[in-house]
């Protein structure tokens, strides 16, 4: 079943499935539907997709008769939820557009670690576009069926979905020719900034709200989920990364301020299939139980061993140097043993 | 988090000009304290001017002392050889504070500018004159075990949290700034202010005034920092003290003492300093000095424990600084600065 639905292609009729409001996809037929799958633990510092969508639909659709109805078409769904599994997009950020007949018109999946490029979205829009439309056509939009079997309503929905997708924080800056009006800064939001981050030797370009912590950019925008969010206030060390070779807390680092630094995350520590000596020693000494703090512990420990002031420390000096990394499972004796082993390596 | 605009400073002068003309703008450098306060909603600037990239990171020998650039990290300063050797109180205060990660990020100018750890300051549902002037003080009638013994007012009983500031006060460091009205030098003990009726102002810095360096003046004596906290590591001081002693043969020529965790600023114990000058160091003398240091303490409902704790801590710091008692760890490390916990577990080199 999973394989079958994961092969859903534009033009396929989407099987029935439950929506969070208790209705089903089949019951919603007669109107286009946009299904947006995303992590539910969206950081409040980043605007939620549906909020972006609502804003864009207001701006894009000013004067469009059914702009008010547009938000009804939008369903924000947990990417680990039942429908995500049912439609074969579990664990992926995805946008699906279903037309009035329940036929999949458009599907875009954000693969882990990847960004959507504006070109992909525009190409999808071009493919969907039944014929050139101009603003008066949009203003007169109705359920009228255009050539190609797509209604204006569906097309406008698709355009709005694409616009929303382009506005997602993980997405590369929209090209100017998309002609989407860039909303003026208002009192309740920060202007998005282009941010270039050098992570594990690779450069990433993002559009970010300046409030975005490096931790959230890593996890939510770049899907580098090895770095963990524990307390989010600099007290637990689960989010430890290396900035220019020194351990640092990604939760207390604004992403925009990490530009120009060499950022190393737990994903970048091993050399290919060869584990870093600290990683190997953690496995050998069983230096974890639940494992949630482990990436942070390993990033602190590997920085400690690279630092001339701490690399030869005794057990008690290691404890002191590791005091910024908490372990609720209290695997501390094994963590110390692992670090001492890596010290000898 | 309240929305804000972000700008990278092009120069010190440009950063000062931008912040000075916008009352809601703030500087940001290491961000360890600032980002947390942004997340808590305690700080709500409309514009952050990032000064971390300004070329203010050098630590250099300067007029027989050391000039520490504002952007030097806490780690860089703590391990700078001339600081660790000649101003161990500074390294001890730094290394006994925060965690490695935070010390790697936090800057030397930012550390003394961190805001109080009074829990009511960070709780938006509680009144706090420091956060919202005129709203009242929840700590005075609340749970005030971490609050001030000295210099408090009817508006605020908060304490200053920085360990480093205590050491810099005892050493009479100098703060170099550039601001909307030009450059100036501020004696470190004058940088922070008492709460009075305006507890929202922590320091005498004007809006838009930027610290460019912290200068340690030439000093040939001994210095030491000692701290009591609720955990062995990575915790703020309940009480702390920094001692700087200059000897004349077997007698104390000059003693300077700053107390931490007991006031809105590092609290210089001037009665104790006066009592020590010209005297031969003995435990009895140090006990008299500690009694003098805390004679004017005004405890609140839950913090009277800090008086005997602070007195004992000061006696011990004086004994260790003068050499009458050994340090509990190598000078210039967290182990020398700690009481209990890991203190005494790392051998002091002979």
TrEMBL record, chain B:
PROSITE patterns, per database record: FAD_PCMH (PS51387)
The family database entries (InterPro entries) matched by this protein are listed as: CO_DH_flav_C (IPR005107), CO_DH_flav_C_dom_sf (IPR036683), Diverse_Substr_Oxidored (IPR051312), FAD-bd_PCMH (IPR016166), FAD-bd_PCMH-like_sf (IPR036318), FAD-bd_PCMH_sub1 (IPR016167), FAD-bd_PCMH_sub2 (IPR016169), Mopterin_DH_FAD-bd (IPR002346)
Query: Where is each FAD-binding PCMH-type domain found?
Result: 1-221
Instruction: Enumerate the UniProt keywords alphabetically.
Output: FAD, Flavoprotein
Q: Which domain of life is it from?
A: Bacteria
What's the short name of a Pfam family annotated to this entry? FAD_binding_5
Q: Does the keyword Glycoprotein apply?
A: no
Gene Ontology MF term list: FAD binding; oxidoreductase activity
- Claim: Flavoprotein is one of the keywords in the record: yes
Identify the PANTHER family for this entry: OXIDOREDUCTASE, XANTHINE DEHYDROGENASE SUBUNIT C-RELATED
Its name, as the record gives it, is Xanthine dehydrogenase family protein subunit M
Q: Which organism is it from?
A: Hymenobacter setariae
């Amino acid at each position: 079943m999973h394989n079958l639905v994961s092969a859903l292609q534009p033009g396929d009729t989407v099987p029935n499935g439950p929506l969070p409001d208790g209705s089903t996809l089949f019951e919603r037929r007669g109107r286009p539907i946009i299904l947006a799958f995303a992590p539910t633990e969206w950081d409040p510092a980043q605007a939620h997709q549906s909020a972006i969508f609502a804003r864009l639909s207001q701006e894009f659709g000013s004067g469009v008769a059914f702009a008010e109805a547009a938000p009804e078409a939008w369903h924000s769904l947990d990417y680990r939820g039942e429908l995500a599994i049912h439609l074969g997009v579990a664990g992926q950020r995805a946008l699906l557009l279903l037309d009035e007949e329940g036929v999949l018109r458009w599907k875009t999946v954000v693969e882990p670690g990847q960004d959507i490029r504006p070109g992909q979205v525009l190409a999808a829009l071009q493919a969907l576009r039944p014929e050139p439309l101009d603003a008066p056509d949009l203003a007169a939009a109705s359920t009228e069926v255009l050539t190609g079997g797509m209604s204006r309503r569906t097309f406008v929905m698709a355009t709005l979905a694409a616009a929303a997708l382009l506005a997602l924080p993980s997405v590369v800056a929209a090209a100017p020719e998309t002609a989407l009006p860039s909303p003026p800064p208002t009192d309740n939001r920060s202007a998005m900034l282009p941010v270039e981050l050098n992570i594990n030797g690779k450069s990433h370009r993002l559009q970010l709200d300046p409030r975005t912590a490096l931790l959230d950019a890593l996890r939510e925008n770049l899907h580098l989920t090895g770095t963990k969010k524990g307390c989010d206030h600099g007290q637990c060390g689960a989010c430890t990364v290396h900035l220019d070779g020194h351990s640092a807390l990604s939760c207390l680092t604004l992403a925009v301020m990490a530009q120009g630094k060499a950022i190393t995350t737990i994903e970048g520590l091993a050399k290919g299939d060869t584990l870093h000596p600290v990683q190997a020693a953690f496995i050998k000494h069983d230096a974890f139980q639940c494992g949630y703090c482990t990436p942070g512990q390993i990033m602190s420990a590997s920085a400690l061993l690279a630092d001339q002031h701490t690399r030869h420390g005794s057990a008690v000096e290691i404890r002191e140097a590791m005091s910024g990394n908490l372990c609720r499972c209290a695997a501390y004796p094994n963590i110390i043993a692992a670090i001492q082993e890596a010290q000898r390596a | 988090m309240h929305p804000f605009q972000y700008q990278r400073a092009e120069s010190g002068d440009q950063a000062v000009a931008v912040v000075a003309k916008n009352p809601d703008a703030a500087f940001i450098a290491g961000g360890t304290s600032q980002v947390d306060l942004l997340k808590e909603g305690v700080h709500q600037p409309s514009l952050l001017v990032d000064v971390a990239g300004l070329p203010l990171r050098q630590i250099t020998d300067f007029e027989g002392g050391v000039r520490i650039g504002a952007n030097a990290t806490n780690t860089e300063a703590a391990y700078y050889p001339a600081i660790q050797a000649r101003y161990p109180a500074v390294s001890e205060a730094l290394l006994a504070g925060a965690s490695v990660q935070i010390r790697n990020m936090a800057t030397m100018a930012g550390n003394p500018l961190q805001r109080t750890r009074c829990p009511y300051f960070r709780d938006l549902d509680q009144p706090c004159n420091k956060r919202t002037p005129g709203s009242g003080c929840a700590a005075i009638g609340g749970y005030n075990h971490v609050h001030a013994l000295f210099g408090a007012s009817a508006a605020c009983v908060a304490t200053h949290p920085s360990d480093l500031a205590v050491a810099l006060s005892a050493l009479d460091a100098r703060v170099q700034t550039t601001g909307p009205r030009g450059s100036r030098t501020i004696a470190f003990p004058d940088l922070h202010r008492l709460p009075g009726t305006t507890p929202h102002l922590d320091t005498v810095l004007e809006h838009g005034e930027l610290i460019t360096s912290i200068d340690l003046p030439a000093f040939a004596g001994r210095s030491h920092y000692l701290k009591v906290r609720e955990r062995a590591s990575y915790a703020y001081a309940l009480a702390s003290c920094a001692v700087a002693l200059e000897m004349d043969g077997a007698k104390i020529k000059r003693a300077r003492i700053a107390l931490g965790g007991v006031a809105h600023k590092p609290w210089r114990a001037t009665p104790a300093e006066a009592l020590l000058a010209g005297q031969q160091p003995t435990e009895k003398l140090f006990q008299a000095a500690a009694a003098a240091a805390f004679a004017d303490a005004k405890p609140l409902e839950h913090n009277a424990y800090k008086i005997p704790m602070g007195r004992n801590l000061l006696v011990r710091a004086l004994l260790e600084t003068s050499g009458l008692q050994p340090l509990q760890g190598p000078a210039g490390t967290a182990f020398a600065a700690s009481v209990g916990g890991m203190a005494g577990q790392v051998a002091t080199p002979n």
